[in-house]
Every structure is written in structure tokens, then in C-alpha cells.
TrEMBL record:
Native source species: Caviibacterium pharyngocola
Reactions catalysed, as given in the entry: hydroxymethylbilane = uroporphyrinogen III + H2O
Tetrapyrrole biosynthesis uroporphyrinogen III synthase domain segment(s): 14-242
GO biological process, one term: protoporphyrinogen IX biosynthetic process
Keyword Lyase: yes
EC number(s) per entry: 4.2.1.75
Protein's recorded name: Uroporphyrinogen-III synthase
Pfam families reported for this sequence: HEM4 (PF02602)
Length: 248
């Protein structure tokens, strides 16, 4: 019973290797590559424009990676008079290692809703929030923060670029390999996967167990026809591995 890993780049490869070591066959089929974003050159200036006490929110490890590398290349140091946030513990740990600053995240619900529940997010009058993000993505946090009085600025730090495959051939390979479990770690990946797999193969796709990382994505998957959906408590590879081992 093979597992299809759609997580892009190195983290997807690492998860496949972890599964192989655990004796579980897995295929890596990243649907996107991650490339540098269009607004990285503006990042030092955007950070300089923030006031003492303003917020910086990194949506993912990819955003941290590209932002940190850009600032290193520019000789720019992360400011110690700002407050830094992510939605997940692993990303917060990584962001903290890059900024050498405390990074806050929601301990209970590692998502935008959890972030909005933090005490620091309740009254945002006169706060400016710089969001380090990719192209596209969810708008809930920025919309709600604006309603609470914040001024929002964004920096596109990375881009998801679809990878060209022969979708009929790749779907056939997955079926012949015995894929019965699919890992989709974002709504963007799940939507693209549904477009990628030919419609006449959707019965097979939706008969697979789906492992995802948020109840929001799980609810959407169930509405779209999946009957076996498991939510990993966190989005990092170790948590995904434990979820896969428990449900395998």
C-alpha cells in the first residue's frame, strides 16, 4: 500500500526517505516547484518602514528561507524592535533561528484562526503587519487583521510554479504502484491534485486515504468526495510520518 507525497522540494523528498526507512513504499510527485518571489528586493525597505512594535508574520518555512537569504545577501539584520509570528511551531522555531528573535505562534490551533486568537492580535489599531508569503494563498488573516485596525503590507517571498507532467501517465504510475494514501499539505496542492488527476480517475483518487494538515482542508475534501480523511496534528515531516504510521 504505497503513499503518494505531493509536498514540494526537499521536504517532500525527505518525507519519502523517512517512509522508505520505516518500510513503507512512497512516491514523490511534487505538483509545484518553489522559486524566489517577485518582491524580495523590496523586503529590506518594507522592514525599514515598520514602526517600533509592529508585526512580521511569515506564512511558511519557504517564506522564511527566501526572506532570510535575501536579507543576508543585502547585509540587513532582522530588527529586534518588531514582533514576529508564524502559524506553526516548527516554522516558529526555524524563523527564530534565522531572526535570533522570539517568534510567537498559536499552540492549540496552528492555523490562521489560531493566530487571530492570540492576545497580541485582539486590538491592532495603529499596527502595521508585514506578511511574508508566497503567490496566492489564504486571505483570512489579512482580512480579519484589517477589520481589527491593522495596516497590512505583503512581500511575495516565493512562488509556487506548477510542474509540467503527462497527467495520464503519472496517474497510471501511481495506480500501478498501489497508491492508496495521498498526502496533501495545503489547499493549493489539493486543488491542483484534483485538476491534475483525469476526471475518469477521480473514483480511484477519492477512494484513497487523504492525509492533510488542517480541519479546513479536511472539510473541503469530504465535501469534494473523500470518505477517509485524516488530519495530522502538525505539518512538519515528523508529525506526518507518525500520522502515516498510525493510519497505515
Amino acid at each position: 500500500m504505497a503513499v503518494l507525497i505531493t509536498r514540494p522540494d526537499e521536504r517532500g523528498k525527505q518525507l519519502v526517505e523517512m517512509l522508505h526507512k520505516a518500510g513503507i513504499p512512497a512516491i514523490h510527485l511534487p505538483l509545484f516547484s518553489i522559486e524566489s518571489g517577485s518582491e524580495l528586493n523590496d523586503l529590506p525597505n518594507k522592514l525599514n518602514q515598520l514602526k517600533n512594535g509592529d508585526y512580521v508574520f511569515a506564512v511558511s518555512k519557504n517564506a522564511v528561507d527566501y526572506a532570510a537569504q535575501t536579507l543576508r545577501n543585502a547585509g540587513f539584520h532582522w530588527r529586534n524592535d518588531l514582533h514576529y509570528f508564524t502559524v506553526g511551531m516548527r516554522t516558529a522555531e526555524y524563523f527564530s533561528s534565522q531572526t535570533e528573535q522570539v517568534v510567537y505562534y498559536p499552540c492549540v490551533s496552528e492555523n490562521s484562526e489560531g493566530l487571530l486568537d492570540l492576545p497580541a492580535m485582539q486590538t491592532l489599531n495603529d499596527k502595521q503587519i508585514l506578511i511574508l508569503r508566497g503567490n496566492g494563498g489564504r486571505e483570512l488573516f489579512s482580512e480579519q487583521a484589517e477589520k481589527r485596525g491593522a495596516t497590512i503590507d505583503t512581500a511575495e517571498c516565493y512562488r509556487r510554479v506548477p510542474i509540467a507532467y503527462n497527467n495520464v501517465e503519472q496517474t497510471s504510475i501511481c495506480k500501478r504502484a498501489g497508491v492508496q494514501t495521498v498526502v496533501a499539505t495545503s489547499m493549493e496542492i489539493l486543488l491542483y491534485l484534483m485538476d491534475f488527476v483525469p476526471e475518469n480517475e477521480h473514483n480511484w483518487l477519492k477512494s484513497c486515504r487523504l492525509i492533510t494538515v488542517s480541519r479546513r482542508i479536511a472539510r473541503f475534501a469530504v465535501k469534494s468526495g473523500w470518505t477517509n480523511v485524516v488530519v495530522s496534528p502538525r505539518a512538519d515531516n515528523q508529525s506526518l510520518l507518525q500520522t502515516l504510521l498510525q493510519s497505515h
